[in-house]
Request: fold
Amino acid sequence: MSLDFMLPVAPARVRALVLPIGQIKRDRFSSFVERLNEEHVVYLRDISADGRSNRNMFSPLAFPDGAMFYDLLTHVPPPSHLALAPFELFREPLALIAIADGHELENVAFSKRQSANGYAPTMAERNIRTLYQELEELRDTYPNLLTHQVLIFDYEPHINNTIPIPEGIQTIPPVENSKRTTIKTIMCDISSLLLAEMTTLAKSFEGMSSIDSPGQAPTRPGLNGWASDDANPAARRNSQYAVSTVTRSASTSGAPDRSQARMSMPVPFKSLPFGSGNSTPSARPTTPVRSGLSNPPTTFEDIASANGSSTDVTSSEQGATSRPSSAGGKKAPNHDKISVQGFGPGGLNERWRNKGRGRVMILVGSLYLQAGRWTDALKELIEGATIAKSINDHLWHGKALELITICLLLLGWIGVEFQVPTVCLPANDKSISSISKGPTAEEGDPDQPKHLRSLQTLLPDLLERIIGLYSRISGEQLPPLPLSESVIRFCSLLTALHLCEGKLDKTSLESIVFGKWPTKPLNTSPRLTISPPRAQIANLLFKAFPSSAPELLTTVDRAIILSGIASVLGSLGFHRKKALVMRELVSVLIGGLVEARTRGAAEVGIHPAAGLVALNATNGHGNGAGALELGEGDIEHGIDAFLGLLCKTYGVVSFDDAVREPSDEPHQVSDTDASVVSRIQSQSSARQFGISNVKLNILRACINFSEALPDFNGVLKYSSDLLRTAGSGVAPGPRREDAAPIITRDEQVRLVTNISKTSSLSQRLGLGHLAAEYWDEFLVRGITLDALPPTRTPIPHSKSVLPGVTTLRTSQDVNPFIYNPFIRASDKTMVEKTLVSGEAATFRITLQNPYEIEVDIESIKLDAEGADFESSITSTVIGPYRTQTLKLFGTPKAEGALKITGAVVKVRGCRERRFPIFPQPWAPDTETKIKGIGLAALEQNRKLPFPGPSLKPDSIGLSAISAQPVVVIKSSSLFQSSVMILEGERQVFSVTLQNLSQSTPADLLLFSFQDSTMGPLQTALTSRDATPAELYEYELILARKQALRLRKIGGSKRYIAPGGTATFEFEILGKPGLTNGTIQVDYAYLGVPPAEIKDKFYTRQVCLDLTITVNASVELARMDVLPIQGEVPKPIWSRLGAKDTVEDTSLSEDHCLLLLDLRNAWPSDMQVCLQADDNIMIKEHILPGNTNRVIFPVPRVYIDDPHASIPALNPSRQRQFVVSSSKITPEIERGNREAFWYREKMLEKLSGSWKTLSGPAREGSIELRGIRLAPRMIEAIKIDEVGIDVSVENTRAVDDPSSSPPQQRGNNNAVFVDEFAQVRVVITNRTSEPIHPTLRVMPSLCHRPLNVALDFTRKLAWNGTLQQALAPLGAKRSVEVLLGAVPLCRGAFEISASVEETQLWTPPPPSVAKDNDAAAPPRRERSDTEIMMDAVLGARERRIWHSRRPCLVDVRDRA
Reply:
C-alpha cells in the first residue's frame, strides 16, 4: 500500500508516531521503520479482542473482515494540520511506537545517571531499564496518545542470564531469526491495545455537547492538547527523525531543538506555539484566524465574542480545553452558557443540541472507520449525515458523505455487498426503486456487481456535491487546506477510475486503496468514451489550486497542495499542466526557503547575508539540506527528480535526460563516443522543442530554488543547464554558423562565477564529488600529432629489405640499381602515426569556446585506448568566442596499437570528463514542418533516427614500437664537415657515432649515401631521348663511380652499446659536379637475428651533410688513335716495358698508337702514368697549366660480335629489349654499337693515374672515359673477323731454304726474273660461324697510279685464276691458298687480297644439326628478338674483307 497521504482512503488511516529511543543510528532506524511498514495493513481477524467489558466498543470480533491501515510518521504533523482535528480525526496520531536498537544495548550506556534505575548486573539490563524510564517520559510528554510501545529490534536474549522485559517493551529478533509473522504479531498487539483505548476516546466524544468546526475559535487550550508541555523532552536521541515540535531545547533560551524536526519541513521557529516552551502566542499564526468574512457569527455567543474586548478573545483562545479523557475535561466558558431564548423543540437550543449530537456521531463513525468496523461506521455516518443535512450543517454533512464514500469503497474492496445510502443520492433521486435497481440509463459490464455499478454511476456527482458542501458560504467555512486536500483526494479517486477504463472493479479498488497505479502511462490521445473524462477531472482538480493570499496557507501547506495537484495531473497524462503547477510550486518553495534561511540564520546568530554554509555546518549537513532539515536522500531522490521532471516538461536542454529513481545507485555518466553522440542528438531535439525564453525562466527559477535550499548540486546542475540551453549546440565552421548564445554576456559571467564559487565551497566542505557538467559537447575540435624530429622519426620497412634476409640483398653494399628503401622518401602517413615507447611526442589539441566568457581549464590530458599511454597534464584559459590550440605531450609506455580518442578535461567547477574529437563542422537541420506537438512529439523524435546530418567522432590511430636507440654524430675528422678534393682523388675520413640511449643498444646500422651528382644522373636516366650508350655511361657512373662509400674493415661489427660510441671510415671520390654529399645512417634495435624478424621493423636516420669542393687535376683535352705503319725497333718496345719477343713485327701489327693531350689544371707539378694490360707503361711529367701530348701504344682489339646490343647495368632494364627512341638508320646504329664495344674493350686494357710532385701529396686516377672513337679510329684499333696474310715464296728457296737470305722473309719478298714463285694466301676465320669465302688476289705495281699499277699482264704471269671460290671455312679455322706466278721483268710489285662472302651462312635446322653432329651443343630456334635485331641493324648482307698490309715483292735478276 502506498504511503501517499493524498490517497482517497487516507481518512481511514490510523496515524502512529514512530520515534527513536536510546542509542540508534539513522540507517538502522530507517530499516526498522521499513520493516514495520511492510505490515502496516492489519486485518481485524488477526487481532485479539480485549477482555475488559468497558473496552470492547471497537472489538475486532464484530467485523473480522475489516482492516486497519497504519500511517507511520517519523515526525509530528505541522500545527496547521493538527488544528483540523477533530473535524479530520485522521490527522492526529493515536499511537506512539518508540524504536530501539538491540545491538546497542551492550555497547554504550543510554543514560549517565547511575542511580536512576537502581543496580543492574549487566549493561544490557541497565539500558533496558533506561528505555523503560524514557517510555514513561514519553507517556508524560504525549499523554493523550492512546498507546505507547517500545520495540527493541534485533534483540538476542542471553541464554544464561535472562533479562526481565518491563511492560510496554517488546523485543524483536533479527531478520534471520524472525518468522514471517513476527512483525505482524507486534502490529496486531499494538492494534489490540489501540482498539481498546479507542473506546475511551469515543466515550469522551459522546460526552461532549458540541464539537468545533475547523476555522472557528478553538475551544481547546492551544494546539498541544495531545502533548504535555511540562514533561522533559526526549533530547537524548541521536537521530534527526526525532520530534522537534514537542520538545524543548536544553538551552535557557527555550528554542526548540532543530535537529529533531522532520527533514523535509522548514525549521521550526521560537515564535511558533507548537512545540514551544512558553505560552507566548505566535506573532503569525499558521492557521488562519477567525475573521468576520470567513466565519460570520451565527449565535449570540459568537456575536458577543466578536464584539467583545481583545482580552475576551485572547482568553477564549488560550482557555480552550484539551481533548476530553475518561475523567472528563474542561469545557469552554461560552459553551457552558445556555440561551433562554428559543427553548423547546425547534428552538435554537434544540438545534444546537442536534448539531452537537450529529457531529459526535460523525466522529464516532470516523473512529469506526479507522478501527476497521466499516459497517458500524456506515450506520453512524448515515445517521450523522442525516442530522447534519437536516440542520444545514454543511461542513459536517460533507464530511459524513466523504466518509460514507470511503466506507462503501472499502466494503466493495473486501467484497461485501452494500446498498448506497439514501443520504448519498441526489435530492431528486431518492426513491426506493432507484436505489434497489441501480442505474438504468447506461448498462455496464454484466459481470460487474450491481452495487459497484450503482456506486460507480453515483460517484462523480456525489463527489462534486461534497465539494459543493465544503465550498458553501455559511457561518462556518472550511479552511483552504482541508478543502484542497479533499478535492485532490476526490480527483485521485476519479483518476483511478479513469485509468481503469471507467469501471469500478477489483483493479480500480486496488488502485484506490493501495495506490497501485497502472504501469502504462497515458498519452495525449483523447479518451472520450471513458467516464469520468480527463477534462472533467482536471477542471475539478484545479478547484484545489491554492489562493495567492499568504495569510490563508503556510508555505508547507501550499507546497503540499501543489504537489498533490501535480501528481494527479501527471497520472492523467497532462504533463504540461503539471509543469505549470510545478513552476508555481518552485516559486512557493523559493519564498519559503528564503524565509526559513533568514529565520534559521538569525536563530544561530549568523547574518542572513553570510549564506547557508554556517547553517549546514551547525546542523552537521553536508549536502545543502540544512535549510529545510532534509534527510540525506531527500534532495537526491525528491528535489532532484522533481526539478528534473519540471525541466524535462519544458524541454530544457539538460546534460542527461534520465530521471533518477529513489532506489537508483549513484548515477554513473557515460562519456563514450556513442553516448556523447546520442546526448548531442537528444539535446538538439530538446533545443528545438518549446520556447527558449520560457526554458530560461524555468532554469533561473530552479537556480534560485537550489540556492535557497541550499542545494549545491542543484545550483551546479541548473547553472550549467542554463548555459547549455542558451547555447547554440553546434560545431561552427570557419565563417559559417553563428554559435553565439542567446543570453547576455553579464549573465554568462554570473553563471560561470556561480558555478566556480559553488564548486569551491563544496570542496571546502568535503563534498568534492559535486560538480557541474560542462555545457558544450564540442569542446575538442581536433587533435593532431606533430611530426617527430627527422633524427627521431621511426621509418617502417618490410622484412625483405633487410640485408641478409633475402638472396638479392646479401650485404649492405649493394648495387645502387637494386631497390634501396632507405634512400627513398618515407611514407608520411605511416611515419606520422608511429611512436616510440618511452619517448614523448607532441600533440596539438584544438579547443573551442562559443560563449562570450573565458573558460578556465584546470587540467587537460589526452585519452587513449590500446597500449599503455601516459599524457602530460596542463592548464589553460580559453578566451571568449574563439578556438585555441594547445600543446600536449604523450608518451607510450608499451608497444602496440593505440588510438587517441579524445581528451579528458577538467573545467573549473565542472566534472572531469572525456570529450570526443569532432573536427568537422556540424549543425542540426531546422525542422520546417511541425508534425507533432506536446511532450509525446519530443519523446517520439528521440526514438526515431536523428534527422540531421551524421555526427561521427574522430580518432587518431597510432602504433607504438619498442624502445629504440637515439644515435647522433659525435664528431668527424673533417673540419666543419667540409672537404676539398681533386678530380679522381680519393680521401678517407672518419665519423664517430654516439648512442644517447642508456638502455637500448643499436644492433642494426645501415649506411646510404647521396650526393649532388645523383640528381642529374637520375634525371638523365629517365630521359627518353638518351641513347643506350649514354644510359650505360650514366649507370656505370652510378654503379662504379660512387662519390661516397663505406670502407670495409675486416672483423668490425656494426654495433653501438647503450651510451657508447663507434667510429666508421668513409671514402670520398672527386667527381665533376660534386658539391655536396650526405651520409645517411639508418639504425635500429632489433633484438633478434634478422631472419627472426616478423613482418616489419623500424629504423631511425641520422645524417651527416658534407660540403665538397672538387677542383680539376688532369684533364683530357684531345685524343686520337693511329695505326702503326712499318716496324717499331725493339729498344722502343723495351723502354715501354713490352715483353721480349723474337718478332718485333708481331708487336707492331697487334698494337696501335693512342695519342692523348693531357692538361695539368692544378697549380703543382704532376706526374702522369699510363698503363696497358700487357705491362706497357709510360710516365709523363706535366708542369702546372701545361698540356703535354702523350703517344702510347695500345693493343688492338678483336670483338666477336661488335653489333651486339648495348647492355644495361640496371637490372630493370636488362629484362627487356630497348630500341633507341631516335629514328636512325641501321648503318648508324651499327656504327654506334661498334664504337661502344671497341671503346669499352680498349678502356678495359688501359688505365691512367696522376700524383703531385710538389705541395701536399695527392694522387688520383685519370678519367679516360671521356674518349670517343671515330670510324677512322675504330679501323685502326679493330682486328677484322677474317684475317688475310699474303706472302710470296721462291720455289728454289722452298727446296733449299739456306740459299735464301734472311731478309727475304716477311712482307718484303725477293724473287728472280723468270723463276717460278708461289703466292701463299692464308685466310683465318676468327668468327664463331662458318663462312663461304671467295678469294681475290690483286697484284699491282708499286708507286704507280691506279690505272698504270693494274697493268701488269706483260710483267707478271700466274698459274690459274686470281679469283676463286673456296670451300666453306669453319669457325675459328684457317685455310691456305697457293698460286704459282713467274715475274717477267724486274721491279717492285704489291700483292693484296680480299675475301668476300659468297653467300650468307644459314644454320641448319635442329633435326639436321642433330644428325650431323650429335656432340654439338643445341642451338635454340630463332626468336623474335633476333627478328627485332634485324629490324634495328638492317638485313644481313654479304661482307668483304681486305688485307690490312699488302705483300711487297722485289723482282731481281739473278746474278
In short: The CA atoms of residues 482 and 858 lie 54 Å apart. The longest strand covers residues 1096-1111. The longest helix spans residues 575-603. The chain has a mean pLDDT of 78.
